[in-house]
Write a structure and sequence with these properties.
The chain has helices at residues 2-9, 33-36, 73-84, 111-114, 135-138, 153-157, 171-177, 183-190, 229-244, 252-269, 285-299, 302-311, 404-418, 427-442, 468-471, 476-487, 495-507, 583-596, 609-616; strands at 15-19, 24-26, 44-48, 50-56, 62-68, 92-96, 116-118, 210-215, 316-326, 336-343, 346-350, 362-365, 370-376, 381-390, 393-401, 515-521, 528-532, 536-540, 547-552, 567-568, 576-578. By secondary structure, it is an alpha+beta fold. It has a 7-stranded antiparallel beta sheet, with helices on one face. The protein has a 6-stranded antiparallel beta sheet with strand order 19-18-17-16-21-20, sandwiched between helices. The longest helix is centred in the middle third of the chain and has 18 residues, at 252-269.
Length: 620
Amino acid sequence: YQVCLFVGFFDWSDHALWWGQRNMWVLKTHWTLDKYGIQSDADLCYTPQHKPLLLQLPNMKTVKMTVSYSNVVFKAVAEICRVLNIRRPEEVSLLKHTEDCKKKKKKEKNAFLDEVLDMDDLNLNTVASGSPAHSKTMVATYDPENGMPLTATSLWFGDNPFTASQPNLPPADLAKMYQALSLEDKTTINAGWLDSSRSLMEQGIQEDDKLLLRFKYHVFFDLNPKYDAVRITQLYEQARWCILLEEIDCTDEEMLMFASLQYHICKLTTSSEPLDFSNEPEIDEVEAALSNLEVTLEGGNTDQHTLLSDVTPSPKQTLLLIVCFRPRKLSLRPYKEYWFVFKDTSISYYKNKESSMGEPIEQLHLRGCEVVPDVNVTDKKFGIKLLLPVADGMNEVYIRCDNEVQYSKWKAACVLASKGKTMAYSSYRSEVKKIQSFLQMKSLAPSPGQSASNVEAMDMVAECFVSPRYAKKHKSKQLTGRIQEAHQHVARLSLMEAKMRFIQAWQSLPEFGIKYYIVRFRGSKKDEILGISYNRMIRIDMSSSLPVTTWRFANMKQWNVNWEIRQVPVLRLDPFSCVSCDCKVVHEFIGGYIFLSTRSKDQNETLDEELFHKLTGGQE
């Protein structure tokens, strides 16, 4: 009778059997124990499926949240993102916390990092299981035609603490967190990503353990300031910490640009005016219709696209440019001047202008290429690096422009050509303006009609906005003045525009989104580093840190994993085995990026989970 009262008092619906000896959940209640292979000596634990977990968000704040320990990580992350109101949860995953990958510093306490917010105490209308209590407040209603939410972020949640940017840490606290990272150190960090096809318990995560919630796949689809306040803020925070802790390399000029944007965002965040995300500017309906038409023309209606090309002649650019070629064998040719003609989606170059009426020396087809900026506005360096796909890798071509105008036009043309578009497309002019605006933002000279404010009157701790290593190179007063000068170019941006600019500048860095792993190719006697980005893999020499070969995912006609010997074949080359992590981690990155490339707005944000696991789960 007492047992009956005990069972009746508690809700056991969330409990399930955990078989610790086999490291698995016993969830199929219609199966017999004999079918599972459970014998009389088995040790089973009757435990809740939802348990508390400590999550460090991209803004470095730690929250305590009840999550599912029995669902696969892919589903658990989707639940977490739904509670936090982060759209596109497929871009997010969980990372194991690595304590001091370089054990040169003793761990010091940091009040900012040690603070924990309990989600049960926050007024987010959540229930203990981590699911939304009311779908109206937690899950948006979507337009069936364009897949966009019908209500703004502020209307789903009201006041959400995760839409506000965190204040910058004092320089002393920032210095405690900073560690210079080599490529080998980065491989140690990247080995900690959890397997999306297994549950938390199956990967050794226990109740109240601490994990990092991070944007794993750096392809941020359909970012919309009106509906993605939390997502954009957390993306900005991840980018900000990435810059401050120098997890990604950037030039001194870029560091000042990032510092000026941080300072501007900090000023707007701490202002007395309330933040109203519902007032973000609407997308013009005509512009949206033109964009949809452009996508339709690009997507497959060949007759209409051909007809449009016949009616609108494709413009071309001609210019005397300096170019340098770097073939796959790393034999660097010197820079040399040629006469360039950019037409459609290809560049032809000639010995001089007079010979441009004949056959070109070579024609470079840019469709599917990678366009990497190589710019330093202060030094008047305006370069474009093109990574051109070839049969077994990629060739590098460096182009130098004389000034900002040349660079903006040619880079915009290259970006469109890499997507199969010509300069006749309506987005060409906006792309040029976007690049020019970005260059102006990187310039340290004030814009015409603007004057730098009085540095003496500024209440700014400049060292808070740059990495500790960079702060040591300049005196505080000098650094404050340079940040204030750079701030003149972004002073008129709204809060959300400034965050978007920061994210876009982060995306433009050459090393953006590359995850590094130590591998060994079959037949090789030394370890090498493999970099994985959203569209390519890079083979890097560990001693020199220089790229050896690049493979694009688009050229990978065959891709699988030999699970018996844990090797990953790449194209027709020798397969490699992973040294710094299990090959499943690398396999999931490649498959995940291929999966994300299949997304489109007409999917109404419904994910094909079966396809994701087919591409990332392997055949273990």
